Amino acid sequence: MTSDLKVALITGGNRGIGLAIANKFKADGYQVVVTYRSGNPPAHFDGVVMDVTDSESVNAGIATIEKKYGRIDVLVANAGITKDGLVMRMSDADFDSVIDTNLNGAFRVARACTRGMMKQKSGRMIFIGSVVGMLGSAGQVNYAATKSGLIGMARSFARELGSRGITANVVAPGFVDTDMTSVLDETRKAEIVAAVPLGRFCSADEIAGVVAFLASPEAAYISGAVIPVDGGLGMGN
Questions:
Q1: Residue 22 vs residue 186, higher pLDDT
Q2: What pTM value is reported for the model?
Q3: Which of 30, 36, 69, 143 is catalytic?
């Protein structure tokens, strides 16, 4: 089966920022496919089982999407985990698992999409980074390292694939109002808000809007960029 609609693939699109991105692309008229590891995909979305830490699972998932729809126009590499802890207490396992999911996983999915995008001579790769990838974050050495690594990865994809009409960019959110931040106590939330010039958390929909812009015709000449959506917290660092 093929579709005349443009196809957007969102990894980790079953909740939070990923689900907001999936909803935005669907509203913009895309055929949206979200990845999930177990259970069922979100209602009203096509889904494909994919474990980004497993190359065979990634390759099989991409092949399934391309067989069904004929193409992937937009990849949003959003899947990620956190295993926070002070560096002196951080185990190798906690460091390695975050690297393998957030950084290596993004590479596996982007690599698997590369051949099809090169063949069609078009494509948008959008990596979901974080302000901590540029600022650092105490207790998040592993997570910050992955988000910093995504910048070098995206810029390398941009240079390598640009001649084939493929762009690669990073969206770097600040503190976003999601299930992950809802567990913070009120004192910590107040500290965070006080550090943000706009004085509030970001919404997942605001992230989704920037991602959708990078996939739009208006952003056709943007590649290798890091777009902060952090309320001024990082001031472009």
A1: 22
A2: 0.94
A3: 143
